[in-house]
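Encoded backbone
================
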Amino acid sequence: MDNVIIEICYVAKNQELFFVTLQVPQGTTAVAALAISGVFEKFSELDKTDLNLGIFARKVANDYVLQNLDRLEIYRPLKISPMEARKLRAQKKN
């Protein structure tokens, strides 16, 4: 079985960057690659059952099968919606 090369990227709340390049077996799912990477041990705030994942900013499911040269990104929940943030900025200007 061939391996694929992937990258995993996560920026924690404290702005600490987790970025790793891995070789994983072909057919590895996104959540399996995360377990291999050690990101769950390093960042206890990550909930394995409620992850927002993407490949180059395109949302994917936990069971997405990784392809060669994919960059798997873990997204934190938004504190405020982009629409609400724009409203608040507009109010500050006035």
Summary: The domain at 3-93 is CATH 3.10.20.30 (Ubiquitin-like (UB roll)). The beta strands are 3-11, 17-25, 52-55, 58-60, 71-75. The first helix runs from residue 30 to 37.
